[in-house]
Design goal:
CATH architecture of the largest domain: Up-down Bundle
Helix content: 55-70%
Distance between the termini: 33 Å
Largest sheet: none
């Protein structure tokens, strides 16, 4: 007996299709501007992976007579617009895309039941691992990896003996541990990329309201980065590089306002997930409270983004459950 797609599988297939359709139409712009042969090969690989993923999702959904999302078209991208980003930025961006993709596809795999869907997401993990490793190798080769700082190797295993291990706001704070440093660095790196994207969008958005919205997002990213960086500085750990210098001064938009807003919604959801993980993993109270406060601020920004999308008719509705109560009331 054929098993019907469940809600988790539909959600993850739908999201996979929407995201990769955006990449299929936006990546050719980066390819057309690219001059560095090694980076061009990474961009080309990213496009090939997205194309394969979209074809595979279409096959699964069509077998179920499931309507395909509309997503994006060629009208959402101007391939002839001037260069907006350096080749280095494109490399950094698609490595981050692979990083986020690995997390998403892994979670999609473990939330799937049907064999064909599990096989599909297993393949997505394999494809994305290839992209991540190749792009990371090139980042390391170019000195652009923006890695975490080194810390001393402990002499022996040990246990926590005092409640002061959790102290944050009051009393003497212990140094950051490796897990906390990892979370701070992870989110500084993500914030640096998001901040540069928001800055670029503020330059090219057609409406004043959107330009102001993107500027607000850039300022929020700057604040978050400063909070996390200040915690590193307290322990004399180095800060990470930001990417504003990789954005040109062009004011001509290569992407539609709809596509830019969709990207911000997507990356904002990733931030909320990462901040939530950090809250659970960081032991020092002050760090957890910082992430909690900044998560709430990010959620409010995303809510405002959703309202802009709805107001302009840009938000495509995800599949939803049947409104049983309404069915009964309308009989």
């Amino acid at each position: 007996m054929k098993i019907q797609l469940n809600a988790s599988e539909i959600a993850n297939l739908w999201t996979t299709y929407m995201n990769n359709l955006m990449y299929i139409f936006s990546i050719p712009y980066y390819m057309k501007k690219c001059e560095d042969e090694e980076i061009c090969s990474i961009i080309e690989l990213t496009l090939e992976i997205s194309q394969e993923i979209v074809v595979n999702v279409e096959e699964i959904l069509k077998q179920e007579n499931f309507p395909l999302p509309l997503g994006f078209t060629e009208e959402d991208v101007d391939l002839n617009a001037p260069r907006l980003y350096s080749d280095q930025f494109a490399l950094i961006q698609y490595n981050a895309l692979a990083e986020n993709g690995l997390e998403f596809y892994g979670l999609s795999l473990v939330n799937s039941t049907r064999v064909d869907v599990r096989d599909f997401f297993t393949h997505c993990v394999s494809l994305t691992t290839k992209l991540y490793n190749q792009s990371k190798d090139l980042l390391v080769k170019r000195g652009l990896a923006n890695s975490a700082p080194t810390i001393p190797i402990p002499e022996k295993a040990d246990f926590v003996h005092q409640q002061g291990f959790l102290t944050g706001w009051f009393g003497d704070r212990r140094p950051l541990n490796a897990i906390e440093i990892n979370q701070l660095v992870f989110n500084i790196r993500g914030g640096a990329l998001a901040g540069a994207k928001l800055m670029s969008y503020s330059q090219i958005a057609k409406s004043k309201d959107l330009r102001e919205f993107f500027i607000r997002g850039k300022e929020m990213c700057d604040k978050h980065i400063e909070v996390f960086t200040s915690l590193l500085r307290e322990d004399d750990l180095p800060s990470l590089t930001t990417y504003e210098s990789e954005v040109t001064n062009s004011t001509i938009p290569p992407f539609s306002d709809k596509m830019m807003m969709f990207f911000i919604m997507t990356i904002g959801a990733v931030f909320i997930s990462k901040y939530g993980s950090a809250i659970g993993l960081c032991n020092r109270r002050d760090i957890g409270l910082h992430f909690t406060r900044l998560l709430a601020e990010t959620a409010k920004y995303l809510e405002d983004a959703a309202n802009i999308m709805i107001k302009n008719g840009w938000m495509e509705q995800p599949p939803q459950a049947t409104a049983r109560k309404a069915l009964g009331e309308n009989r």
